[in-house]
Amino acid sequence: MTCELGIIEGFFGRPWSWTERTDAVRFLGPRGYGFYLYAPKADPYLRRRWRDPYPEAELKALRDFGAACREVDVRFGVGLTPFELHFGFDRDAKVALTGKLAQLDDAGIEDLAVLFDDMRGDVPDLAARQAEIVHWIGPRTKASRLIMCPSYYSDDPVLDRVFGARPRDYLAELGIALEPVVHVMWTGEEVCSREYSPGHLERVGQQLRRRPFLWDNYPVNDGPRMSQHLHLRAFTGRPASIGEHLSAHAVNPASQPVLSRIPLLTLAESYARGDGYQYFAAFQRAAKEVLGEALAGRIVRDLLAFQDGGRDRLTDERRDELANIYAEFDHPAAREVAGWLSGAYAITGEELQTQ
After folding, report:
1. Which of 23, 149, 156, 329 could disulfide-pair with 334, CB 3.0 to 4.6 Å?
2. Average pLDDT of 170-181?
3. Surface-to-core class of residue 251, CB atoms within 10 Å of its CB (0-12 exposed, 13-18 middle, 19+ buried)
4. What is residue 38's DSSP assignment?
5. How far is CA 158 from CA 13, 49, 73, 118, 352, in A?
């Protein structure tokens, strides 16, 4: 079963550089990834300062990246998080939003995701308020695909604890209120779902009256706890049979752009092979393709320590030993491992609150 695959750069902490994004698109585009949604939590002009216009230098970088995507037939999109706009969709807000949409059009976006995550949502008419905003945006953007992320984008009760109790029948009301052309994001039974089943996705699709646009939070490793781990293993719990229940499958990658390619290649293989997919064999093939045989062999050797154990369970002496080993490899992925070992990718709770 085929499914449209793409990347959503939607993690907290240090974002990828423009060069890293461009390299990722050029590598992954020909290998099955057909769209890229730029939505890093660290970009203030898409999040807490969304009302402020992009400075020209940053707008140019966005425009250049869009051109790089088009060169390899990858759809270019942006995720805009208009913080708490559903609490005050007034004239001033509409003026600011009009200006930001014009800038994104100038950057050449083909996809626009309006993201209502990471903000309070405990109001009874939330679905109607958000649908109004999305429908207002629709005719004011040149993007050919419009996507929205609900405030409650998973069954996971952690969202209710952090952002207030979700309104009753929120998903069903959203499905009724939104025009059928609007795609709706969903992360699954949990924010970071271990698996997806056709039954679960079919139920959500019935509530939303459309197939969900999957936001898959693997191999993302942001947050104070997850940033201590390197998520390198092949995808599991995503059988190819889920493809018929999705409008698209977007992967939120890890903070390490080159290492992320390993699991991402395995997801494409899972869809391609269907029931013939074998996750460890897929991991080995992907690791060799991304890293070369020698470095791949070293990563396999350290997989338990990196993904299961984590950096905080390594002694200082062991971290130094591993840093010296990976310094022998002249490869960007080895430098990512060294950076992770040194704590360069560690994320604090403060970043989760301020980005």
Report:
1. 329
2. 98
3. buried
4. E
5. 20, 26, 38, 12, 15
Peptide bond into 219 cis (omega under 30): yes
Distance CA 136, CA 66 (A): 24
Q: Does residue 108 register a pLDDT over 60? A: yes
Q: Mean pLDDT across the stretch 26-45?
A: 97
CA distance 248 to 251: 10
pLDDT in tens, 257-301: 999 999 999 999 999 999 999 999 999 999 999 999 999 999 999
pLDDT at 205 over 60: yes
Helical ranges in the chain per DSSP H: 18-28, 56-71, 91-106, 126-137, 158-163, 170-177, 198-208, 261-273, 279-291, 293-303, 316-327, 332-342, 349-354
Q: Give me the residue label for tokens 């980005």.
A: 355
d(CA 283, CA 15): 25
Q: Give every CB contact of residue 67 below 8 A, 6+ residues apart in sequence.
A: 108
Residue 58: predicted pLDDT: 95
Geometric angle at alpha carbon 17, from 81 and 256, rounded to 5°: 90
Question: How far is the first Cα of the chain from the last one, in angstroms, to the nearest whole number?
Answer: 37
Mean pLDDT, rounded, of the chain: 96
Nearest partner of 256 among 38, 22, 15, 10, judged by Cα: 15
Spell out the residues 6+ positions from residue 63 whose beta carbon is closer than 8 angstroms to its own: 106, 107, 108
Q: Are 201 and 249 in contact (CB under 8 A)?
A: no
Gyration radius of the chain's alpha carbons: 20
Percent of the chain with pLDDT over 90: 94
| pTM, entire model | 0.96
Q: What is the DSSP string of 132-144?
A: HHHHHHGGG---S
Has residue 1 got a pLDDT over 60?
A: no
Residue 24 in this model has a pLDDT that exceeds 60: yes
Instruction: Decide: 184 and 147 in contact? Cβ < 8 Å.
Output: yes
Distance CA 59, CA 56 (A): 5
